[in-house]
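#random but structural
TW: two for the price of one
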Amino acid sequence: MKKIMSLLLAVLLVWNMTGCANGNGEGNQAGEAGTEGGTEPLVVAMELAYPPFEMRDEAGDPSGVSVDLIRAFGEYAGREIRIENTAWDGLIPALQTGAADIVISSMTVTEERKELIDFSKPYANALLAILANADSGITSIDDLNQEGKTIAVKSGSTGHMYAEKNLTKAEVLAMPDESACVTEVAQGRADGFIYDQLTIYRNWQNNPDTTSAVFIPFQDPEHWGIAVRKGNQELLDQLNAFLDQYEENGGYEELTEKYLSEERKAFEELEFQWFFDKAGQ
């Protein structure tokens, strides 16, 4: 009898341990947690390397425009938000494999990406610009598209896509992150870096002696969207309804005032289209 009781206790112990492991958020895959109509946390992937949109605060916690925006969506949908810092080239795979339910990371909506994931309606616009080496003589996009010129781009970015498609005479140098591209230009190893206007503006301000900024709207505005897995229509509909309400309630103005007030003044002086200006959508 003692042996039977011991065996039963052992079985119960194993069952309890297995049940606990499968019953909490850490034991399940993120994709299962974020199924339509669920109540588990929504796992949101973003690369915390693009201030002030995606970054960390002084305590090391996620912060920025995208963080505030998606947390507001969590409140709207009645869902807890769990943010996962994810390398840029891992964002789309995170959705495809179920490691994340949502991606919001200043990601431009492109036809190529739409084949892999679904996007919400646009929530922001962006134009590309050039950070040029101060001694390069670059004053236009045509100046970059020359033999002997080197263009730094962040791998997988829309600047990378644009350069590969349109600047075929120059050498395109794909690098893993923004800071590496800026260093190449500032130290004269690349003639220019193509990225969005806000990033170019900020890096020009940080490196005024070695770089110059070329703000030329040489393409139509890009649109940023929030991404979900292909076919997750319920979550997509929730996001679209939220974005409409968020705009109506002045949410974008609050984000601008909190994170981008100085940049907006500079953009107005330079007559650049603002990120949240609906005119370009």
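TW: number two ↓
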Amino acid sequence: MKIAKCDRAELSDREFNSVICDAAEEIVAGNLIVYPTETVYGIGADIFNEVAVKNLYLAKNRPFDMALSVAVSDKKMMESIAVLNDNADKLVEAFLPGPLTIIIEKKPDIPDLVTAMSRKVGIRIPDHPVAMGIIKKTGPIVATSANLHSHPDATDIDSAVKDLGAAVSMYLDAGSSKLKRPSTIIWLMNKEVEIVRQGAITREEIEAVLNA
């Protein structure tokens, strides 16, 4: 287990890129990392490595029937794993990168283990240079919060280490989370819309975009 400082303002380009490369290598090797986002800290793994995803569930003590969210770096990567509709396009344009998770129809190559056998997958684009830097090198990674199941979300690295310990190979410390609250989760199916969890983006903001 290692902890690496990754506050962009405190590192040179070379130092920052080195940390990003090390974290990406951990993901590619099938290990777990904890990484910062603008909402809370996340625990990440390669979504296509089912052993790594299983280990992530076990590390969090998370029930296997609870789907995991996925983080991507841009709309193109999102479209590689999900089928976007008009409402999703509007929300992506308005809020991403940012604290919004969109639950939308997944493509067949996404392992059922990630989505708890669901035909849909929750996806977001984090608004954080560390998260974005890693994902650009690895492709989609798990985006669930870095805490034990039912424990408070981790808004700093110490909380994540306390909960997850040696189950995680690398912790990336960028200080306290900016928003300190999770993303809003919205479920889309055809023209149906449901806010599953109210987070940093309000219902009124979402409705204003969808009704425009």
